TrEMBL record:
This is Cobalt/nickel transport system ATP-binding protein. Coiled coil: none annotated. PROSITE patterns: ABC_TRANSPORTER_1, ABC_TRANSPORTER_2. GO terms for cellular component: ATP-binding cassette (ABC) transporter complex. The keyword Disulfide bond does not apply. CDD domains: ABC_cobalt_CbiO_domain1. Belongs to the ABC transporter superfamily. Keywords: ATP-binding, Nucleotide-binding, Transport. SUPFAM superfamilies: P-loop containing nucleoside triphosphate hydrolases. The keyword Translocase does not apply. Residues 7-238 form the ABC transporter domain.
Amino acid sequence: MSETPIFALQDVSFAYPSGHAVLHDVNFAFEPGQQIGLYGTNGSGKTTLFHIVMGLMAPQRGKVLFHGRPVRGEKEFQALRREVGMVLQNAEDQLFNPTVLDDVAFGPLNLGMSVDEARERSLATLKELGLDGFEDRLTHRLSGGEKKLVSLATILSMQPKVLLLDEPTNGLDPQTRERIIEILAALPTARIIISHDWDFLAQTTSRFMTIKDGRLVTDVPHLPHRHVHAHPLGDEPHHHHD
Ligand SMILES: Nc1ncnc2c1ncn2[C@@H]1O[C@H](COP(=O)(O)OP(=O)(O)OP(=O)(O)O)[C@@H](O)[C@H]1O
């Protein structure tokens, strides 16, 4: 018997106001403990899917469930966002405070922590990400990779139960990417990670899902290799039969 999903999408269809239909009858249940890599070609609707889960956009058909109940209003989505933290594809969209500490402490303060607790939590998170000493830096002056790391810190500092990461390794150098792998590999937190970086997904998730033509089409355990050279969901390798 499976546990109640943390969140689920039920018959979700979504089109942008331009008429561009992106998702078609998507059904998906995210169960506790799952660590999923989400793959799909550019423009296939991965980010859109995340935005619908978080309540940033409403589907024309179907619904989002949170712990088995339909999520209807902003108040209910706020409850969902306490458990599900999303790191946006574009760090610039996530950072809106003057300093790094303000940004990283924003979530914890919002969750009701005291200023001291929030500061302590934020400094610890920054340290974990190798960003000691960054707390007083001005966010708008950071490099692209640093912004990416700080945006991850703004979510990790809230210690969400589920992490939704939208292309977290984009623009990172190999060492920084490796650090993110180490951090995520050590975290037990359930997650969905959108990425085209197979090796990264192999090290930070345990299943693959693909989205194609607006439908979730694959859900397979993926290769446990540390270095994945082949496209695991691509063409079948040619088998030679005797
Ligand atoms: N605000 C919008 N208005 C109209 N169309 C949009 C809007 N945002 C996204 N789209 C279109 O919807 C489709 C899905 O976009 P989405 O960002 O979800 O794809 P994605 O799978 O995350 O892509 P990528 O891998 O390139 O980030 C794309 O064709 C995109 O051009």
